[in-house]
């Protein structure tokens, strides 16, 4: 069975868990392949007649599906304190977490990386990136500089100490001489990291091999991105991006699955746009409409709690996501949030200093100065949360989806019409059939 890649088409927070839920028991493995606890999924599950909300930050969304094996891939950076805090929280609510696998090659967020992340962001002042301060960027920097700590290092105390000593010999100079901060002690770091080793040990595996064997056995493997296309370190709105590859190409490097095993790329597109943190956002609304989207859509960060910046949907971004990721299917989420608007603007192109751009401007300066060119579509007033087929949607809601499909250049295979995992309309299979 081929692998399926799931990515965000905008700046994150599109609702990737909705697509995972839709595939449900048909998915055997869900693999997080990039990022760390700097992003999250909110998943709403109907249980005993009540809606239960689960906020996941580091764990793959498959952790909530009893028949699925969740995997943290080699491309992820792992904060062990957060990992066990999340596992403990789920277990306290009756969720079985014993199936979790963690790649031996995943990198660990060391305490000094969290410290450096926070002090560096404060030092940048008005030039700040908008990082979550969780040590993600510094850990990826260590990885690329070849002085990072991997999961497997926890099981060789001698190697671990050598790596921590080498890292702190340099990083303590920066903390003390540039930021006037206390040096971090080697033993302090060693004690923290080794304190997790025995609990972590049973979860650690050669996950690339496990996934290859699963695919050979005809199992379905879903590769789930953290963040989204425009936060990808290579293809996003640099430098206001994350530190890893959140696009479809990153799924292969972050999991150890070769590209020849992937035949479906699903992208999640919110029916409007949101962004957390700094950086350009052409359709951003700083008026009553933006507040309406934020309030109605409950647009506050799963991980940070920060209010999200809100704006109308941007199909220039949608087309870009289609091209960069090779999208075969879109899932449009939160269509219900637009209910009650008389008209709904859709960004179809940009005006940059009097020049029309139908595609993403190649340079960042132009994107910063891009002004949206809108097409107005009629809205609808009907409650769509109970609709379970495309034909049940109001005519104007159907027209909105079909126009998005035309503008972004790939089919819309599913539509979210409410926060619950069952509040979704399926138009086409997401399993590559």
- Major β-sheet annotation: 10 strands, mixed
Report the span from N to C terminus: 11 Å
**Strand order in the largest sheet:** 9-7-5-2-10-1-11-14-18-19
What structural category characterises the helix and strand content? alpha/beta
- List the total number of helices: 13
Summed over residues and divided by their number, the pLDDT gives a mean of 92
Q: What overall geometry do the principal axes of the alpha carbons give?
A: globular
Oligomerization = single chain
Which band does the percent of strand residues land in? 15-25%
Number of strands: 19
The helix content, as a percent range, equals 25-40%
The low-confidence parts are none
Computed Rg: 22 Å
Task: Summarize, please.
The protein is α/β, with parallel strands linked by helices and 433 residues long.
Write up this protein.
- The protein is of the alpha/beta class and 433 residues long.
- The protein is 31% helix and 21% strand.
- The protein contains 13 helices and 19 strands.
- The protein has helices spanning 16-23, 80-92, 111-124, 136-144, 157-177, 186-194, 197-200, 207-216, 248-253, 288-296, 315-325, 364-368, 395-408; strands at 3-8, 29-32, 41-47, 50-56, 69-72, 77-78, 101-103, 107-108, 204-205, 221-224, 262-270, 273-275, 309-311, 329-333, 343-352, 355-357, 371-378, 411-416, 424-426.
- The protein has a ten-stranded mixed β-sheet with strand order 9-7-5-2-10-1-11-14-18-19, with helices on both faces. A three-stranded antiparallel β-sheet has the order 16-15-17. It has a two-stranded antiparallel sheet with strand order 3-4.
- α3 (111-124) packs across α4 and α5 (157-177) packs across α6.
- The longest helix is centred in the middle third of the chain and has 21 residues, at 157-177.
- The protein is globular.
- The mean pLDDT is 92.
């Amino acid at each position: 069975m081929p692998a399926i890649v799931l990515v965000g088409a905008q700046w994150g927070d599109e609702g990737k868990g909705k697509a995972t839920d839709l595939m449900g028991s048909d998915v055997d493995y869900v693999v997080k392949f990039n990022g760390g606890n700097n992003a999250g999924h909110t998943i709403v599950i109907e249980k005993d007649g009540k809606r239960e909300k689960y906020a996941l930050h580091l764990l793959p969304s498959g952790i909530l599906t009893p028949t699925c094996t969740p995997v943290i891939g080699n491309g992820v950076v792992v904060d062990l304190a957060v990992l066990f805090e999340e596992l403990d929280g789920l277990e306290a609510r009756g969720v079985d977490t014993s199936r979790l696998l963690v790649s031996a090659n995943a990198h660990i967020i060391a305490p000094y990386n969290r410290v450096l992340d926070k002090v560096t962001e404060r030092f940048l002042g008005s030039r700040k990136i908008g990082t979550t301060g969780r040590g993600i960027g510094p850990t990826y920097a260590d990885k690329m500089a070849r002085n990072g700590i991997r999961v497997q290092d926890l099981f060789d105390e001698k190697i671990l100490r050598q790596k921590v000593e080498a890292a702190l010999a340099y990083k303590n100079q920066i903390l003390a001489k540039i930021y006037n901060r206390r040096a971090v002690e080697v033993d302090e770091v060693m004690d923290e990291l080794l304190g997790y080793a025995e609990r972590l040990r049973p979860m650690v595996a050669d996950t690339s091999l496990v996934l290859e064997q699963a695919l050979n056995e005809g199992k379905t493997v879903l590769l789930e991105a953290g963040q989204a296309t425009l936060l990808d370190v290579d293809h996003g709105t640099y430098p206001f991006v994350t530190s890893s590859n959140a696009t479809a190409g990153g799924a292969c490097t972050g999991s150890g699955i070769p590209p020849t095993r992937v035949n479906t790329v699903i992208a999640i597109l919110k029916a409007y746009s949101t962004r957390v943190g700094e950086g350009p956002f052409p359709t951003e609304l700083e008026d009553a409409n933006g507040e309406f989207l934020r309030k109605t859509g409950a647009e506050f960060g799963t991980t940070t709690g920060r209010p999200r910046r809100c704006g109308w949907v941007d199909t220039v971004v949608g087309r870009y996501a289609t091209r960069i990721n090779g999208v075969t299917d879109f899932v449009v989420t939160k269509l219900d949030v637009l209910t009650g608007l008389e008209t709904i603007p859709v960004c179809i192109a940009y005006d940059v200093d009097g020049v029309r751009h139908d595609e993403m401007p190649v340079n960042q300066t132009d994107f910063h100065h891009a002004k949206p060119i809108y097409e107005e579509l009629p809205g609808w007033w009907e409650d769509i949360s109970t609709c379970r087929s495309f034909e049940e949607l109001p005519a104007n809601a159907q027209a909105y989806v079909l126009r998005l499909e035309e503008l972004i250049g790939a089919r819309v295979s599913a539509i979210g019409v409410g926060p619950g995992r069952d509040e979704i309309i399926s138009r086409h299979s997401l399993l590559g059939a």
